[in-house]
Amino acid sequence: MNPTIAVLEERVAAMEGGIVGLAVASGMSAITYAIQCICTVGDNIVSTSQLYGGTYNLFAHALPNQGIETHMIANDDFAGFEAEIRTKHGVPLIVYNTVATPFLCRPIEHGAAIVVHSLTKYIGGHGTSIGGIIVDSGQFYWVANKERFPVLNQPDPSYHGVVYTNALGQLSILVAAELRHLETLVPLSTLPIHLYILTGLETLGLRMERHCENAEKLAEYLNHHLKVSWVNYAALADSPYNATCKIITSGKASGILSFGIKVSHKVDSKVAGVQFIDALQMILRLVKI
Ligand SMILES: Cc1ncc(COP(=O)(O)O)c(C=O)c1O
Prior knowledge:
This protein has 289 residues and is α/β, with parallel strands linked by helices. It contains twelve helices and eight strands.
């Protein structure tokens, strides 16, 4: 084990309140391996439909091609994602915490079994490195529904018939991920990537405070702007997400917001949107956050 990677894994796991972390090459590999260690052909996952494009393609196309079906819950039907899902139904809840970061939200405290991150974004913070991490809460009882998690509960022929839950107990999912994927597909990035990410992690708190403060000011400004028709930012008092935001992220909503511009009924709104973005001079268009 590389000691720098181990420090990164330990720190992010500690910040999330999990027992162990596994660093991988990107956020997308973290999402992919977290699911592939639990699911196999014929299994189903349930997901929100509000996904980043890469994750949408993974769930809608790549995983179904490997025999894992995704049921997407439209809009914000959060009743479908009850926090007690793991205790009520024996289904592990995986939360993608990239945008909130553990500075704003610790999903394990709300019932998540596993937390995944793209470290490429706020945690790395400087656009220098691509990375991802899977954090295990250590609180999901994988042996309780053995038939539901064959990957962890049945002998793995590629590792001398080891049954991960027998050999490793609560650590089974991440060790299974490491043995099944990292050693064969090697989706781990190399130094100095983890060093850059660790350096970014040092200032996460400061940067997140500032991101939230800036985004909130911008959201307030846009919310009162005569040429703006709507603003979607959960920290705004009139946001339908504000009550939830107060509960899970202390009323802060990270650095991403969206808004609509008012256009005359004679103008195609998509065309107007493109014209507006093209006319921006200080704000750059990027395909990543
Ligand atoms: C919201 C979101 N999630 C995940 C990813 C993918 O992360 P990574 O580049 O670390 O694989 C991106 C990349 O832009 C993203 O914007």
